[in-house]
Amino acid sequence: xxxxxxxxxxxxxxxxxxxxxIYGTRLSAETVSRITEQVMGR
Length: 42
What we know:
- The protein is mainly α.
- It has one domain.
- The chain has helices at about 1-5, 10-25, 30-40.
């Protein structure tokens, strides 16, 4: 889900907020950034 939202242009902070609102999942902005960096090969 994180990668899909990121690929559609959502910011890291928007993703954090979206995941918390929709799924009740709390991730830090740093965690979301690490996920996107690892998958995107940065």
